[in-house]
Amino acid sequence: MAQIVLDNVDKVYPGAVRAVDGLTLEIKDGEFMVLVGPSGCGKSTALRMIAGLEDISAGTVSIGDRVVNDLAPKDRDIAMVFQNYALYPHMTVEQNLAFGLQLRGTPKPEIKKRVAEAAKMLGLDQYLKRKPAALSGGQRQRVAMGRAIVREPQAYLMDEPLSNLDAKLRVSMRASLNQLHDRLGVTTVYVTHDQIEAMTLGHRVCVLREGRLQQVDTPQRLFDNPVNLFVAGFIGSPAMNFVTAQLVRDGGPHVAFAGEKLPVPEETFAGKPGLDGYFGREVIVGVRPSDFEDAAHANARWARIPVHTSVTEELGSEINVIFTIDAPPVVHKDTTDLAQDATEGEEDAAIPLVEDKALWTARVNARSHVRPGQDIELAVDTNNLHFFDPDSGVAIGHAAAHAVAPAGA
Amino acid sequence: MSLPVSTPLPPRRTGAASVADPPRTRAGRPPRSRAAGAAAGVLLWGYAAVALTPLLVMVSSSLRTEADLADRPLGLPLHPVFENYARAWSDGNFSTYFTNSVLVTCGSVLLGTGVSVLAAYALARYRFFGHGVMSAYFLAGLMLPIRLGIVPVFYLLNSLGLIDSRIGLICVYAASGVPFSVFVLTAFFRQLPAELEEAARMDGAGELRIFAQIMVPLVRPALMTVALFQFIPLWNDFFFPLVLIGNSDKYTLPVGLTHFVAEFETAHAQLNAGLVITTIPLVVLFLLATKQIVAGLTAGMSR
């Protein structure tokens, strides 16, 4: 086991394409680190540089105490799980598991022991003599895991290992991965574009965008204190609602937008130094869908806003209420990037907005029985409002805000 | 050999799978009308008759005596005799020709395939200086029939002292099969996912081991196909041994057959026996290899 340290790592492809740009990241011994970001953010490239499958253009990567920049993949003592599993089709499960050990000259009885242990751990005992083609997707995935486990490496690298599985299996494999990591305690770097996977698996999650680090923190802290609009919009589902608002002092601090006014608690100013400098100016306000509630079921001290429901999504345990607010959607590089990722780059994939008004989502109690087209009153937990600078997109008063390069710089 | 991607699970390949294959494909076809079915049947049986009749005549003639043949050129071997085979084999020198054919053909196929698989792997999976030129060079070999170059080939072999030599013949044959084999194998190698190579590299395999233990086993069906495609024309080839071989001890079967006709003017029965001897290995090879190749091709498709 070992820590992995990336120090100012760059990856420049021919044609001056910067896939990874000055990435500095310290992955602690035994940590489960998730690299997450939209497609093309450089997360896979970063992983492949740790693996040794890509050259490092600049900076250093160390595993344990060794700088591994010039070491071949096999000498880095790491194991990788690939998205398409990359099992050797002509070998049985047993041979697949044993291949890496054989090449390392592990004695035969030891190989047998380790393969049997891994197979037992992953529930593959009865499939050892089968070839990968005769296995289901989930079983193949477990063989790919097993191939990494038997090697007993310093670290596991996983490149979207669950993305080829169907949704239900993915959830159960996620749980087994968590269990497996608790049991083995090996440093793991895990790449995914799925923020739910990132939140559920990672001890810490590293959000990347265009090759640059945005924020590294525990899932909860990413959710509660996103460093900029991009992270705020990327982490959390449904995504955070944004609006451009005026911060006004009107018998107490308020944010005013779309004909509504939400009070801003005094404690907020203590927690976000610099926010008071924005009085009389515009800020981008972010509200998590989960910080809404149907007024009838909500804390009496929360602020109220009346809305007209456009669509409801009843999920059983809760209802997503989608409504328009009388303000244009926030146009900022961060939010447009996110929208592009959500529609996978297709310009027309999203439904055009009605009269250019922002669509918000509120997550309310299932008992509220709200129907589409209904006017309801929503309560907002104003303690959890997020404030972003309208130019840089950086969270106002965030401790790490200075560390993030402004968007598009 | 289907690869573990997100395709639906292919049926398990057990011993019974290959037997069970044909009915499944037949059931998968859309139903045809009776008339169309009958027409297709007539056409196919007609073609089979045209193709098989000469072979049947050859076999039956080889089992009849010379006198019987002279009496009735076409007819059934009512009293089959096998002395034609014995005489062709010993008196007609067919044992020598047969050995030569086996040596030359197998040697050429092994050499040609070996060279091709190495070249194809490099062309398919590496980018290097001169890559395009090399690809074009191999491809050019497909464009020009090698027989057009017989005069330069003759002088080349002559200057190398390889005229009238089985090794010279093997060299020419092996080279003649390389372009096609490289062409086919390159396509196969290119299809193999890069992750397999990377996984092997992480497992600690070097270039040679990746090639020999991961990549080559995966293109085995293609290897079988190109080997067979080289074998058949070489086994049947008449032209090169005729030009390049002078000594009758080094003749291959096709040339041997003509030699045989010239020496035994009217020995049609023995000639037919010789033809059967020449044909049998091809038939056996087809019976053995077809299953392998079909299995390999279908497995390749399902990936």
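qc> Confidence is low (pLDDT under 50) at residues 405-409 of chain A.
qc> done
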